[in-house]
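Exercise: predict the fold of this chain.
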Amino acid sequence: MRDGASAPLNRKPGPKPGNPRRPVNRRTAAALRVYRRRNAVLVGLGFVAAKGSGLSPYDVYLASQLWAEIRERKLALEERRCYACGGEAGQVHHGDYDEHTLAGPKFIPGGWPGWLERSNLYAVCDRCHEWAEHFLGEKLPPALATKRLKARRKKNRLDERAVPRAARIGKQERKAREMMSELARLIARDEEEG
């Protein structure tokens, strides 16, 4: 190859490192397809960035009032507990980017409560969200990230320790029950005395 010799003809140059048009592997290619489909769904729902803003439809969606309401309601429903580790949740992970999950409750009769129960959203802490969505410097597709969250939940045995939602009692309800018990005890004592 020295002195003017050319490269062999059967070798094709590979993709340049960091070239966004040529995925590094199948997982990255799958993630890019998912994010393109997500952006198409969001544009169909009306989340379009102003020209020249440099924002994606997903950035516009995350800044919207709809997403703020979905996020707060999901965190409140899950009592701000991380799905994967049980810590304090501050983020919501999309398990899928379908129209049902992104558009909110307008597709489900019964409004918010029914939609939140059926949505593919997970309340997670910052640490678990970052861990689930990134692996060896790559952003993973949401389905794979969700599998990672479920594996972490299983490892932490949260399903074994979980108390059914109907059995959970908030602080105010617990205090009211204690006051009622105390009142009943006082009434019983007064009846015995008098």
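Check your answer against the key: The beta strands are 91-94, 121-124, 134-135, 138-139.
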